[in-house]
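Suppose you are handed only these lines of text.
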Amino acid sequence: MHDILEKSGFNPDANYKVVGTSPIKHDGYDKVTGRAKFSADAFAPGMLVGKVLRSPHPHAIVKSIDTSKAEKLPGVKAVITREDFPEKKAGTGAGDMTRIAMAREKVYWEGHPVAAVAATSERIAKKALKLIEVDYEVLPFVIDEVEAMQPGAPILHDYLRTKGATGADADKPTNIVERSVLKQGDIEKGFAEADVVIERSFDSKPMHQGYIELQSCIANTSDDGQVDLWCCTQAPWVYRDRLTAIMDIDSSKIKIQQSELGGGFGGKTTFYIEPLAVALSRKAKAAVKMTMTRAEVLKGTGPVSGTHAKIKIGAKKDGTIVAAQSELSFQTGPYTGSAFVNAQQAIWTRYDIANVETLCYEVVSNRPKVASFRAPCVPQIIFGAEAVITELAQAIGMDELDFRLKNAVAKGHTTIYGQKFDEIGLIETIEAAKNCDHYKSPVPEGQGRGIACGFWFNRGGETTGTMSLAPDGTVNIILGTADVAGSRMSMAMMAAEEFGIPVDRVRATLADTNALGFNRVTAGSRTTFSSGMVVVNNARQIIGELCSRAAKMWKVPEEGVIFEDGFCRPASSNVGDFEPMSMKEISSKTTYTMGAISAHSEMNVTGAGPGFAVHIVDTEVDKETGFVAVKRYTIVEDAGKMISPIQVEGQLQGAAVQAIGWALNEEYIYGADGRLQNAGFLDYRMPVASDVPMIDTVIVEVPNPKHPYGLRGVGEVPLTPGPAAIGNAIANAIGVRPTSLPMSPPKLLALMKSAKA
Amino acid sequence: MPDLRFEAPGSLADAVKLLVAAEGPARVLAGGTDVVVQMEMDMIEPALLVDIKRIPDMGRIVQEEGGFRIGAAASGMEICEHEALCAAWPGIIDGVKLIGSVQVKGRATITGNLCNASPGADSVPPMVTAGALAHVVGPNGERDVPVEQIPTSPGKTSLGKGELIESFKLPARPKNSGDAYMRFTPRTEMDIAVVGVAVNLTLDEAGVCTAARVALGAVAPTVLLVPECADALIGTKVDDAALAKLAAAASAACQPIDDKRGTKEFRIEGTGVLARRVAQKAYERARANA
Amino acid sequence: MSKKYHVSLTVNGDEYECLAEPQMTLLDVLRDELKLTGTKEGCATGDCGACSVMVDGRLTCSCLVLAPEAEGRSVETIEGMAKDGELHPLQQKFLEMNGLQCGICTPGILVAAKALLDRKPDADEMEIRYWLAGNLCRCTGYDKIIRAVMAAGEEMKGA
Ligand code: FES
Ligand code: FES
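From them, the structure of the protein bound to FE2/S2 (inorganic) cluster can be written out as follows.
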């Protein structure tokens, strides 16, 4: 039982010294001097280089693989194929995972690994790849999920049957993994009450997380089967358990050490080259380093789900939304796991709508398996949802923000998925948006302004961590969650606040998988919240222990000692006349008390506070070319209480620019041959510095009552309304509604033309 | 496949000798910003690379006969930093500035931009409209070739075995003349032209266009020099009517393809739009260059 | 055995030598041979700027320079930016103003920004944005990077 989860919630009257300031983060120094060690920055004695052979076909049976020539090439130490992984039944969790790592019966996308080589140099490894002969029986393929749903589409898996299908469809081979309905109220009745109904279709193309750090790892397998793995990951424990699941290696024999993480955004929550490196290392009996190229990252790792959406929404003249109905389809790549349920639940969470029906399809096709990306599946669906919300407001003639305010959810609202909201900050956020300078200033001539409102659940989950006190009174935190953008510092700040000491006296480091119990993946905007709980709980345990040691040393009852600002003091003059004792004085004498002082906590954290944001965007569209310039961008968001404001701002700003990329240009472009045509940063167009303006932030603080420092996750909320706000801005600039992501120049030009015609 | 051999000769004659004697595919290495990338992407597997940067004077930018001589190894940044060149040929500078990032331009050359023979190369249309000549050196002696005759199709040039470009000659800039280049890309930087247009024109004292050259990039297998576009401008004050004619002629000249960077329709229409904008810019520059 | 090339170069003022295969790049030499891993690889095709270094005083993508080309050249990398333990104003401002999140783009951006400020400490926002257009950052949205560069320029002007 953890007190912290039960009773010690947020204290609104507390006066903080460290929390709410913006000190330089401890991992910063190494990052500005080049010393920080990212995944590719490590070397091991006797290290080999591993390279992957990938399928050139989007869909083919792998009839045979002949590696004999490659094996004979001098310098080649190991070649692996599907034969080097134990058989796991297709259609199961482990079966899918092993087949994503290394193709078995078939290849399912261009870039699917079919073999890998470890050699003494990269050049030799690449040469060896060319000597591997793979006999493919090429099959018809399908890239788009709507096409994949049609009768007669090439079927990826003979065994697949649609979950949730009824009648004749229930027992037919299909590409539809799941058909799922979430509803409340009476949708027909709802629309009958509506004065205005808007109905539109939208679609989005997959985009990539776009982290700059290429996946790289070193696997070192000793002869007795102990595996050491160094890699960049948001989920060391998940990687470990998945290695166990697909390679039958005891988890206790696998030690994963995470490197500095050079960006992930959800894309490093699942492994790719890591199991291959382990298998190569096991076979070669040497350490093997593998680093993906950018083309491999784009072809081989998870983009987000491309989608189609049909949305119908109705409201009364007074502005009450009465019904919302949608049919959504999600690409998942060749295997299930798109997390579409996020979108099904989040599509309308901002609003209190009595009658809702949301039908979702998850569909396999010949693309790389999708992976998480900041609020998986949500921004591309909110793109359509917030477009029709804006159109409704315009049709009724209400101010857009007032319309949203009228329908906004508040404390006590029970969502369609059964969560009852505690303190939430949506109303405060919309009001702050109304009052911010950007919204109040007129739209500049020739530009269009867009508004959208976003939401993310924010998650908790299994989290562990330890904390120890050194004899000099400084504090060491060991975390199990990955640091994706500064969480070590936030943890150090929360601990410093608890102890009442300067943050420089606290350091947080990242554990390997042997050092702590299981930690869920760093995702869902859960880390600062969940690990923060662990840290505060540990600090409070240590404070209790400090008081108990002081009591021992003073020979007084424990209740006679209190802890304040880094010192144990007598609770009152009745206890005795003792000089306050510092953390250092106590911890330097632990030999005489009960030994070292440390604490650990293992929690399944709950109580993450949901987050809401409003984005306001001004765009200018070149009417002759369709080029969009984003001129001004403001994010208004409820962050709960901020631990480090400068880091919160950074999260928001980064998300805004990712939203700009997604909204305007980023997409996976396939040729008629089913191959990805833009697998590089030249043609996969992420925003560069000259593409974007400064990003203004207005941060609202409605504390999360369930966290001792009131914080809410801020990693994902700020992406969710971005593409929608930009879409609304473009619609207002050109007078016609774009409905397809990305809103690239050729599409906008065609749209403007068709509107003129 | 043969292993790669790297040579950095100290003279032009040695470079030619190496190229002539090469067994297997050979590449001249100037800035390397295409060659190294294509090697990295496994698009080419040369057996020999001849680095020309150690040959004396290959990086020169000097005034010659009222115009300029630019050595084959002069980097994009060196070109952009040359004040007299910037003043005389701002349209060429417009193009060179768009070749990749500052980092890339620190290495990339207009020679490579031309010999890579991509129809989207940014420095090529303004070099064509400038009437630049490539000085080609090879086993059979030297020759001057108009730059538009170097690329023959995507990735292919008219250079023979053992031939390489030593330098470019830009003519003198007449009074009342000016040039400009613009391209369309979905991003502001770091992209390949979806369409690109260069215009170089000369006016009389009254502001009437007496001579013009218009080149289009990324809308055909090679950069197009379009006389019909020039005709639309000559004899006019580059007014709206002339610009409309120019745009129509530019769009009509396009023979584009659909690809990952843009659609046919977009290219055809965009070329007309850009042609108008570029001609206006060139006209302003010509007026300012009295 | 393919022919290797002897490469001698100076990096941050120190002399180094190594043997390199001709298709190796300066980036490979720095990272894999000299173990100077501060310079990062994000694409190996000149499109991300993570590998930015100075070669003979010129800002360059080290992934676009072949190892033998580096013979005799003088290279400056992120490892040489702080002098005697004293951070460069850019490094200091990046820390203070949170010009970095994950930090993988940071070395390249610092090297590139220094090349700009050394020639133009009063570069304005747009000049900085265009100068840094070759340096991708996926985390920050550039805002705090641009502000940190402007602040460092202010300081360098005053110095
Ligand atoms: S690694 Fe050199 S530019 Fe990306
Ligand atoms: S800080 Fe992560 S890419 Fe720039």
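What can we learn from it? Chain B has three domains: 5-51, 61-170, 177-288. Residues 24 and 47 of chain B are 6 Å apart (CA to CA).
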